[in-house]
Amino acid sequence: MITHRRMGATRLALLSSLALASLLYGCGGGETIALEEKGSPFIAFDIWVKAGSQNDPEGKEGLASLTAQLLADGSTQQDTYQQIIEKLYPMAAGYGASVDKEMTVFRGTVHVDNLEGYYGLLKNALLTPAFSQADFDRIKSQTLNYLERQRRYNRDEELSKELLYWMAYQGTPYQHPEEGYVQSVKSITLDDVKAFYDTYYVANNIVTAVGGGFPGGFPQRVRADFDTRPKGRVEKVPAPELEELDRVRILIVEKETDATSISLGFPTELIRGKGDFYAMKLVNAWFGDHRNSFSHLYQVIREKRGMNYGDYSYIEPFPLGYTTQDRPVNVSRRSNLFEIWIRPVGQTWVGDLHPRALFAARAALRELARLTANGLPESEIDRTKVFLSDYSLNYGSTVSRRLAYAVDDAFYGLSGPSGYLAAIRPELAKLTKKDVDGAIEKHLKSPGMYMVFVTRDGEALKKLILSGKATPNTYSGEVLLSLVSEDQQIASWPIVVQGDDIRVMDISEVFESR
Amino acid sequence: MRALIAASLLACASLGAVAPPAAAQSGDDIFPFETRRFELDNGLRAYLIHAGSPGMLAYASVVRTGARDEVEAGVTGFAHFFEHMMFRGTAKYPNYDAVSESFGANRNANTSQDRTFYYLVAGSQYLEKIVDLESDRFQNLSYGEPVFRTEAGAILGEYQQGAYSAFSILDRAVRETIFTEHPYRHQVIGFEADVRAMPQQYQYSLDFFRRFYRPENVVLVVVGDFDFDKAEALIRQSYSGWAPGYQAPAVPAEPAQTKPRTAAVTYSGRTLPMLALNWIAPAWSATDRTAVALEILGDIAFGPNSAMYRKLVIEQQRLQSLQAGFGLSRDPDFVQVMAMVSNPADVQAIEAELLAEVERFKNEPVDEKMLADTKSAARYGFLMGLETHLGVAGAVSRAIINTGEMEPINDYYRTLQSLTADDLREAARQILTEGRRTIVTLTQAGG
Q: B4, B5, B8, B12: which to substitute to probe chain A, counting the most A Cβ within 10 Å?
């Protein structure tokens, strides 16, 4: 077992000369992305189906995810699931599915020695699945075990993030978690899965992306194989339109725990590559770069005060952030939140669980208010440029990741020099203080805020919030003199909220049904 | 659930001139990259390796100290805690984070039972600055008591983000049932009471640094695109003044287990039953055929490609999951088969089936195709882990942790490739015995 100081295991490194993906078009109408890296002994696949949890029918939430899992983890018309495992085993290779709001991707990497055998299995999994009832039963049972038990009990901080999205996207196709609700998944049948596959896994709705040291003509061959799927008309789901949040709304989930997990956030209009995106990327790196001590929030809450394991912010989704420092790929969306993640805050003395949680939340709110009031000084902008320009070289550390970024570029309509990995450094270099402060003004001044707390005794926390009382921090050691005055301000930082806007929910109700 | 499922993933080499084809080993060595080893008079060893993408490098410091070295009462979790303190600066560089940020470095550290691993990944142009920064903190770390106490709060937060899962509770029960003396009894993060008492251990932390952070106990691994001569000169210049003085801890040997043990724990949240079958196993070795055979036996008997997995997970669906963890450690540690059982009434029957399968491997030779496929998987698995600079450093660090040298990694794969069905049967007979066995179950409180 390994514990980590600041982040999960990384597979880092990269890449100064960035290969640019070329977009080809197959004669069948489906798109191909080829990211050739000659001489590489590895070949990566990223098969993108343009459907995600937003396409789940009402009452069948979780269908896109279950469909993808069945294809990735089930039998084909040629091989049983066990035979597939047996064939993949000596290659030390595999493929897996990932489903987000808008996209489903099947990813895998293989050594060039094993390309033919591997590709045959991957192709069959996606083009000629067996839809075996036994496989379906196994995967549905595993999914329900996750939904009923593991999601609720294993990792409160991941749960608090899921709940933040659930709150913010009420009434939209983004509302439900990708894996669905307990009751909706129970209602899904194998026929539902087949119908979803027939509707969305059609030739013109699948992008085939291949990267690495593939042989000549290989991407075209993959495209031709996928063009044997019928074409189909896919209805486009409108992007969620969120109204500006005008007040604070709080969800408290109650369960037995010794630490409080906290997520805060509000809707933004930011989309990768568009408008103020790079200015906000810089601002966000300064304010809360993921699992990095560069994060200002980290410095304030963890480094100076030792309150928890880390504190970060986001302008794009970052599922499973506790597992990795690597940026997620293939979670492209047309709507985003600005999000603050405060890792679990425990109690140091009996009775201080809630005051400490509120102190940490207030510290984050105060820092956000200071940022929006003052903007970023020139010196901090420069410091962030220096850091982020070099640090972002780590993003595309493997051919699989570089390929996935190219797929995301296609999602956002970016290509060539405007592609994300290619554009970060030149776009950062161009930014001025005016750009940065303008972006802060436009995107971070929200009159409202969604707040999620997963903690013990929810009614007591609700009462404490509504009382408006100061919640001083308690330290396990002596209080540093340098922090006393600032701590007083934080402890009484206002959280203005109406009683009706605080909901307390028992853990057993969480994600039970829509 | 959202993560990529299925078998092992990811791989690939990089662009440009530095990366050789992954299959181009010299002789019968599995490790494919050009390497230079040297040792300073004070005992510090360094490996320089040409691999990975152009213009980048990883700089890793492997300290051969981990949770196993926490032999005194009340200081479990200290190796990991100390890892945090290594980021708290020196007189020359009071703010380590700020300096490493200015290189845009991806830097971090992690601690396991047997070692602490520090790394930076950054542009090769920063090599000189990195050697200066890293050599300085390993020799001149300096922090006051208030900062020490503050960091202790962050450790408690780290404990709390992972401590309450069913898996973690089961793991603690397994360790505390198997070990009575050896520090493998505790998780790397430490016992909760010790974590909560850490703010009082400032003086101990200074002793910890003085005893363990010494050149004889540290191995540098530098991977990437850089000049060997220049790097060696920089390292010699910056680390030669580091005084030796490593004091190896008296790690207590675990008394030999002679009888089977069992334990049962409950979980206050909701969970399906979990069943852990464990056997105390020998220390890691690159050349001991029984030890190496045991490591692959786990996958063969209980991995996703095993007969048991096919029967209990795929066909009968009586298990939600079945996993084998048969990797060995620097000292004798346990190997484990872990099952999550779909029906709580089925736990005993599952246990009986898994134990019967163990007996089968003691009596019947392993299938030859399965053995050959496992060797292939081990080889490709190793090669596919070499895509990134950090992946290369991690791949060689397994041998370094256990022996202090990286060369045994080639011996290890030679041994593995030469294994026969008899070796595997012998490993099952010698190690997977009743006398070495500990079975622990975890169930939901209240049924």
A: B12
Torsion of CA A506, A512, A514, B5, to 10 degrees: 120
Q: Is residue B417 within 8 Å of B293, Cβ to Cβ? A: no
pLDDT tens, chain B, 447 aa long: 333 322 222 222 233 323 444 444 456 899 999 999 999 999 999 999 999 888 999 999 999 999 999 999 999 999 999 999 999 999 999 999 999 999 999 999 999 999 999 999 999 999 999 999 999 999 999 999 988 998 888 888 888 877 788 999 999 999 999 999 999 999 999 999 999 899 999 999 999 999 999 999 999 999 999 999 999 999 999 999 999 999 999 999 999 999 999 999 999 989 999 999 999 999 999 999 999 999 999 999 999 999 999 999 999 999 999 999 999 999 999 999 999 999 999 999 999 999 999 999 999 999 999 999 999 999 999 999 999 999 999 999 999 999 999 999 999 999 999 999 999 999 999 999 999 999 999 999 986
Please give the structure tokens belonging to residue B394.
């991690």
Greatest Cα-to-Cα distance within chain B, rounded to the nearest angstrom: 66
The C-alpha of B233 sits at a distance from chain A's nearest C-alpha, in angstroms, of 24
Nearest partner of A316 among A161, A111, A496, judged by Cα:
A161
Asked whether the whole model's pTM tops 0.90, one would answer yes
Distance CA A143, CA A156 (A): 18
Cα gap B242→B232, rounded to integer Å: 16
CA pair distance A429, B97, nearest whole angstrom = 22
Which of A10, A93, A98 lies closest to B2 in CB terms? A98
Give B256→chain A minimum CA distance, Å.
Answer: 23
Q: In whole angstroms, what is the distance from residue A220 CA to residue A24 CA?
A: 8
Considering only CA atoms, which of A262, A376, A240 is closest in space to residue A313? A262
Q: Return the CA Rg of chain B.
A: 23
Alpha helices in A128-241 (DSSP H): 133-145, 151-153, 156-168, 182-187, 190-200, 218-226
Answer yes or no: do A5 and B23 touch at CB < 8 A. no
ipTM of this predicted structure: 0.91
Those of residues 412-441 in A touching chain B at CB distance below 8 A are none
From residue B103, alpha-carbon distances to B48, B50, B106, B430 in Å are 21, 21, 9, 52
Of A305, A285, A306, which Cα lies nearest the Cα of A296? Answer: A285
Contact predicate A15/B14, CB 8 Å: yes
Read off the tokens for B135.
């050599």
> Which tokens belong to B386?
């070499």
**Which residue do the tokens 């085939």 mark?**
A208
Smallest CA-to-CA distance from A269 within A316, A222, A224, A221 is with A316
Q: Residue A58 corresponds to which amino acid?
A: E
Cα dihedral angle (A324, A328, A334, A337), rounded to 10 degrees? 20
Question: What residues of B are in contact with residue A95 (Cβ under 8 Å)?
Answer: 4, 6, 9
Q: Which two tokens stand for residue A240?
A: 């969620």
State how far the Cα of B372 lies from the Cα of B334, in Å rounded to an integer: 26
Are the CB atoms for A262 and A65 separated by under 8 Å?
A: no
Question: Counting one residue from A and one from B, how many pairs have CB atoms under 8 Å apart?
Answer: 346
Please report where in the chains the tokens 């070796």 appear, as a residue.
B423
- For A39, the closest chain B residue by CA position comes to B21
Are the beta carbons of A475 and B146 closer than 8 angstroms?
A: no
For residue A495, the number of C-alpha atoms closer than 13 Å in the C-beta half-sphere is: 33
Instruction: Please name the residue of chain A whose CA is at the shortest distance from the CA of residue B151.
Output: A306
Name the nearest CA neighbour of A305 among B149, B143, B77.
B149
Where does A326-404 show beta strands of DSSP type E? Answer: 336-346
Question: Which residue carries 């070795």 as its tokens?
Answer: B285
Q: Is A320 on the interface with B (CB under 8 A)?
A: yes
CB contact under 8 A, B317 and A149: no
